[in-house]
Amino acid sequence: MRNDAHDELDDVPSLTTDARDRDSYEVERAEPARAPTYGRATPPASSRGASTGALWALVGALMIALGGLGWWSFQQINLMEQQLVATQESFARISEEAAGRIQDISGKVVATESTVTSGSEALRLQVRQLETKVAELTKQQQAAITQQRSQDGRLEQLTTDLKAQQGEADKFAAPLKTLGTEQAALKSELATLKAAQGGVGELEAQLKRLSGEVDALKKIGNPNQAISRIEQDLLVLKGDLETRPAASSNTAEFDAFRAQMSRNISTLQAQVQNLQQQIDAMR
To answer: Under CATH, which number does the domain 194-282 receive?
Structure first.
């Protein structure tokens, strides 16, 4: 970095030459003094001609060498040209073959591209169809999920209702069992009642027969034996009716029927007694 304020310009060297510089330069330019030749002879002219011939011989040898080198170079150049021509022909042939192969490959590539294009279009169409199917399946799945949820809700509701009904069924189980037992008992009583009704039918037939006999006795003049027999039959019939067990303690209908039959038998007995009194009075 320069600092001009502190530069010292008092000791500037001079650029002019002085006497010492000129003397030394002139001494160097002075030619050296020739020493005197005492007893030395000058070379002869024949040695100068021999050296010239050797020089010419060397020049000729060099020319011959250059000519041989040129001829050899020319031959090599011709050979290289031939090789170059052959190489060019080979390259041309290879280029033609390569061009044919390239055309074949280009045709195959074009065919492959067309095939790939058609295949890609077909794949795109298939992909679109698959996407459509997937969308439909997704909608169906969502609908199925919604339906499944609805069915799950219904199933839960049905389960709750079933549990409630089971609770109610448990409540009615004991009464139903009791009703079943009572129904079995009623069936048994009904069978007994039917059997009793069969016996009652027989009693009705006997009563009708006895009534007919009583009416017949009224028309007979001396019916003592027949009256005695009828009275015995009425007593047997009344005892059988009274001793016959009822089908059930609460079967009021059967009791009413038995009372009616008892009244009928009592009426017949009264008629028989009146008939007997009339017969006795006639005697």
So the answer is: 1.20.58
